[in-house]
Amino acid sequence: MKLRTLTAIALTAGLLAAGSAYAQQAAAPAAPPDLNAIPDKMPFNLPFGTPITMDRAQGVIQAAIAEANKRGWPEDFAVVDPGGNLVSFVRMDGAQLASIAIAEHKARTAARYRRPTVAFENAVQKFGFNYILTLDDVIASRGGIPLVEDGTIIGAVRCSGGTGSQDEALCTVAANTINKTP
Q1: Are residues 78 and 152 in the same domain?
Q2: In sequence order, what DSSP letters do the residues of 50-78 get, joined into one string?
Q3: Euclidean distance between CA atoms 7 and 13, whole angstroms
Q4: Are 109 and 165 found together in one domain?
Q5: Do 75 and 15 share a structural domain?
Q6: Could you identify which of 101, 103, 113, 159 might form a hypothetical disulfide with 171, taking C-beta atoms 3.0 to 4.6 angstroms apart as the criterion?
Q7: What is the pTM of this model?
Q8: Whole-angstrom Cα distance, residue 131 to residue 144?
Q9: Residue range(s) defining the domain that contains residue 13
């Protein structure tokens, strides 16, 4: 009986080790960007434009709410101006309370840094650039998206309350009411 138990334990340990090695090979991360490379152009260099109006901000949020209702995801939504100042906010019934501040923070980060917050998430998660977390007012979690009109940033939208991928899906729908790609 002892021999069977020991054999089963050894076999299980071997399978776990082999599976772990395979998983590491299959999920090999992309090569990190070279931080010493000097780009020809400044990345994320969109100018700040005229701030989004309250009416348009509420329209952006209504698009997010419509999508959230279709999917059954109660969330919090914030729209800020280019300086990261709150223009409009909605918390759906049943959305988690902690996401109120998170929604504002992620929208502020997307507006001020002129990039989607997924860029910070990728820098930390995929490439291990933990120094990103030392930058003022950065939140390294997806779902904050700048609102770009006529090549200028007029604000940003943030959805919060679900997983990062849920938040990003809702914010993409919301941002697309303004961000048009030719």
Answers
A1: yes
A2: SPPPHHHHHHHHHHHHHHHHHHT---EEE
A3: 10
A4: yes
A5: no
A6: 159
A7: 0.79
A8: 20
A9: 1-30
